Structure formats: C-alpha cells, structure tokens
Model the fold of this input.
Amino acid sequence: MNPKQYFRRQKRNRAGIALGGGGALGLAHLGVLKALEEYDIRPTVVSGNSAGALIGGIYVSGKSIQEMIDLSQQLGDDMFDHIKMSLRGGLVSGKRVYNLLLDILGNQHIEDCSIPFFAATVDLISGKTYYINKGRLADAIRASISIPGVFPPFESNGMHLVDGGVRDTVPLRALTPFHLKLRIGVSLLKASINNEFPEYLNISPDDPQNNNDTPGILKAVSRSMAISATESAFKEINAGKPDLAIYIDLGDKMKIWDFKRHEMAIEAGYEQTQRQLKSFFG
Done:
C-alpha cells in the first residue's frame, strides 16, 4: 500500500455525508450507503435534502441498510401514488406520506439519535435556508420533502418550510462544524445535464409546422425539475469542495417521480458508488 492509499484509508474513521435531493432518484442513496458500509465507512454525521433527508433521516434512526431496502417497496408505492396524483391534479395534503413517516419513525427525535442529522429546508417567507437538527424526525423529513407545487409547505414557528433544494441541493455546509477526516457529497444526476455555454437560436424556421410531440405536463415538470436539480447539484458540489464527490447518474432510465423503480435506483447507486470508491481509495 502506497502512502496515498494509506492516508485515504485512514480517513474512513470519521466521515460525514451530505445526501442530495432528486425525487425518486434519491432511492439510489440506499445503494450508496450500502457500498460505503462495505468499505467500512459509516458516517458519523449525516445531512440531507428532500429525498436525501428521507433516506438520511431513516438511516440515523437506527434502521439497517437491509431494513431500509425492505422498506423501499412501501416507500416507493406510497410516494409514487401521491406525487403522480399531485402533478396531474395539483397540490395534495401529503397526509398519507406523513403518516407513513410516523409509522416508520414514531415519535423519535433527532437529538435522540446516535448520529447527528440535518434536514435542509427553506422558509418561503424569509427565503432563508435552515438545517433542522432538533425535533421529531418525521417532521424534519416532511419539511425537507415539501416540493413546491406538490406538497404544501410544512408550517412551524410562523415559517413555511419547503424542499431545501430551492437553495441547497447537496447540504455540505451542514457538515462544516464537525472535525471530519472525510467529507462526502452525493449528487444525483438526470441525464448528466450540465450547463454549457449558451448557444444562439433562430426560432423562425423556414417551414413552420405544428409539433405533435409536445411533452405532457408530467414529462415537462419532471424534465424541468431534473435540469434545475442537476445544475444546482453541480454548483453545490463545486462550492462545497468535499473530499469525495459521488455522482450517481440514472440517465433517462428513471423519472424523478418513479418511486416504483426502487430496485433500479438502489442497484445503480450501489454499483456506481463501488466504482468511484475503488478509484478514490486505490
């Protein structure tokens, strides 16, 4: 083992991880965590946004990776039904999803967990980012997954809290106060969208005609959210400068509301993380 490999292996002892958002793509975090544990990396602090807060919150509650994988079927069915309904018919209460969180986590509070946890959210009133680090786990997750236009904001102390991805897709800054040997940021990508230099476009074609391939509302909303989330994730990773950035690219295989394809997401997260860890540790 060369000195570089030895140094990197020593960093496993105290690691923190920031899990990015991405709707159903967030189920890939289960595969990420599974691969990390196989490398003897068990995060001592976890932050998460939206789907990252969902997976991260259940993880710090004490559930094993296998228990969480078993739960993914139930999570997948429930989330898919309600998010699809929301995108078709407008805002829904999200009570069933919230009740599911309560069934899984009960009255467990963040401060009672052995691993510090931070759920990223944004207050619509002030526009300020908040990292929820105290209170009931189910409430913190419900606030962080409050996708604008899908779930209503979570109301607390006069604030209207929504999905932290509005400002903080991969909450690496939540890890700053901790003396960590390894800071990990996990970014979920859709079709590897990157913001290249803008091109110029002429929208006056020589032969204008009706386009019958206009995407429906579900596809349009999904694609718009994917572009926005991916671009935000790139910026957060570049700004946060983690020791290890893990990128999970699900390409066009999975839509951001397609929670029913949990097995595909978990497998992709596991396999891609394995490859990136092998490259990082040597």
